Amino acid sequence: MPNFSVQNPVLDLDPQYSVRDPALLWDGSVFHCFFTMVENASERTVLRLGHSTSQDLARWGDVRILADGPENFSSPGNVLRVGGEWILCLQSYPPPPGSIYGGDDSRLWLMRSRDLISWDKPQMICAEGCTASWNHGSKRQIDPYLVRWKGKFWCLYKNSGCLGVLSSPDLLHWEEASPDRPVISPQDMPDGSTVENPCVVETPEGFALFFAPCREGRGIGLAYSDDLLTWRDVHYLDFLPTPWADGGPTAAMVLDMRRELGVWMMAFHGERGERFGAAMGIAFSRDLEHWESAVPLEKK
């Protein structure tokens, strides 16, 4: 593989669309990116699930719309290979009248594919929404991220400014894995911010959780865990400057490319202006804490 050095933003569809919530996948020959497409010219919130591919992270193919409609399918979390198919998690985000944000009927969904090109229609995973006791009366579930661990599937999600987690033996039957408390809440944050956009990667020491604080200037947070339920060392990264995005970096999704490149790779979006404006950036790291816009050289 080439020694990547990127010029951010790497995927920018302005002025027609804003690119948010990127989810990267390396299939062994090309990168696939799934992302939220925000229709910039619309006065109401119109979201679609987009897909594009690249071999070098700089030149991207034509954008395909994988899911659209009044449900506002968006915020892809990640893609897992399960048996002979790929599983993609995403959200629906229909706003109530007078709002630009998804309402209480926002839910989590899965899509299935055998070739990463043709996808089945989204299937809702919890029609009842959030049933945890900490949900402050809200059934809303957004920002999913799938993890396979100990013979189960786990799905982190956002509700009431906190992160919860579901578990399932088969991707069909789900239950709250932490019904009495969120796994991350504003009380855990360095500055009390609410939190969204979880991304979990497995490390030799356990799990690392990337998350987005909901605050001015955004930013990227990181925490560690042994069991997906209790997180420690919750902190914000000293991240790359984003002069191309005045609202700051957010919504990190991290891909393990250590075998191919010797590094972790991050896709994120940079916030621009108002009403969901954004474009996608890429960063690289050897230790998950320090990130650069080029693959860092090994220290000798």
From TrEMBL:
Q: Which InterPro entries match?
A: Glyco_hydro_beta-prop_sf
The lineage's top-level taxon is: Bacteria
Q: What is this protein called?
A: Glycosyl hydrolase family 32 N-terminal domain-containing protein
The organism is: Candidatus Gallacutalibacter pullicola
Q: What is the lineage of its organism?
A: Bacteria, Bacillati, Bacillota, Clostridia, Eubacteriales
